[in-house]
Amino acid sequence: MKNNNLSRRNFISTTATAAAGFSIVPSNTIAGLGHKAPSDKLNIAGIGIGGMGKGNLSRMANENIVALCDVDWTTGGRINVPEVFKAYPKAARYYDWRKMYDEMGKSIDAIMCATADHTHAIITANAIAMGKHAYTQKPLTHSVYESRLLTKLAAKHKVATQMGNQGSSAEGVKLICEWIWNGEIGEVKEVEAYTNRPIWPQGLSAPEEKMSVPSELKWDLFIGPAEYRPYNSAYHPWVWRGWWDFGTGALGDMACHVMHPVFTAMKLRYPTKVVGSSTPFTSDGAPNAEIVHLTFPARQKTANVKINLPEVKVTWYDGGLTPRLPENWPADRRQNSGVIFHGSKDTLVCGEYGTDPILLSGRVPNVPQTERRIEGHELDWIRACKESPENRIPTASDFKDAGPFNEMVVMGVLSTRLQSLNKVLHWDGPNMTFTNISDSDELRVSRRETIPAKEFANNLIKHKYRDGWTLPDMPA
């Protein structure tokens, strides 16, 4: 298929022509995009519809699912896209989201994106530049620059957004925020988060075996903006998470769930320091286990926060590595993932989605309910899509917060890949740069080979895309 070079100008010209002969009436032509009555239905396009995308769409099914797109139409197995096609027989079907945008851009109000990590940003950014609302799976993006871009684009175009970390809409996160902000555990200077993931192979080198591409898979479209490599079943489906070009390893997979209550309750933005360590990894694949330390500066208190917010150190563990459990840890509490908030007065612990929060003292806080309760992550996004920008209540993981949060997550990935520099990295968040990586610093990638560290780091912060794949410009 042709790799169209996307730009907002191209979209406007091509979609205007294609829409003239299309039979679906876009809901935004009736009520005005973002000014819909709750009873009006959104026209939603699903991109990446096997796996998590299938579940996301099922919870949006009361709206109009007008288009479906996936690079793999294979029947059976873990990802069964034809099964999703059958569930929405009236929806147009596409392999290439760019072709879908060109042909149906005027007929779509919103998109759901649940593709591999490395294509989240390009799919979502181009949709937002067209004025479409966006629900995008976690991790929001593959790089820091991409996260910043989605944050700014969403603000510029005033669309409703949501990252797919569903725990952010659940009761546990609301309780954690209310307890901490009310001073129930005192000031917090240290937080530890952990997961037992990965549950797929990591730390591998690219396979040398040559394989034929399955007939229903468009491999070039799966590669998308990444550097081209030959197909191998070690990459797709699902196991792409462990490969640097496509995924973000266990950290990217789970930290958007596990660390959301940390980012929210601690009112974090950009870290100032980060350092990572791990088991061995390759230039192709993420490690089997890692530890990342992030330092965040003191923050200003807001009206609903009764405690000071001093500098805080946040530590991430994965691959079965865990923090040392406090002495009063309940004997019957076993969790594969979770968080420990070390307060000056008490310790708060919770599960991987902020679930089942408790204080280790055994006390149950009785505090005012200040946080909005939500009945469904996808449904709350649909609600926000139908509200005017001026009166819209942001979703639990709106990109204005999910973007900076995702920068925190992928910063952990950067620190792991840069660990052979053997230094705590100093981060200038507003300018997206490490301030203590010099032009002369070398990064060891093997026993005999080193590469320029600054160039490598800059490419991790902002990826170089393949020809034919472009992002919209960064808003001012």
From TrEMBL:
One of its GO terms (molecular function) is nucleotide binding. It comes from the Bacteria. The lineage of its organism: Bacteria, Pseudomonadati, Bacteroidota, Bacteroidia, Marinilabiliales. InterPro entries: Gfo/Idh/MocA-like_OxRdtase_N, Gfo/Idh/MocA_oxidrdct_glycsds, Gfo/Idh/MocA_OxRdtase_bact_C, NAD(P)-bd_dom_sf, TAT_signal. Gene3D superfamilies: Dihydrodipicolinate Reductase, domain 2, NAD(P)-binding Rossmann-like Domain. Residues 209-263 form the Gfo/Idh/MocA-like oxidoreductase bacterial type C-terminal domain. Residues 43-164 form the Gfo/Idh/MocA-like oxidoreductase N-terminal domain. This is Gfo/Idh/MocA family oxidoreductase. SUPFAM superfamilies: Glyceraldehyde-3-phosphate dehydrogenase-like, C-terminal domain, NAD(P)-binding Rossmann-fold domains.
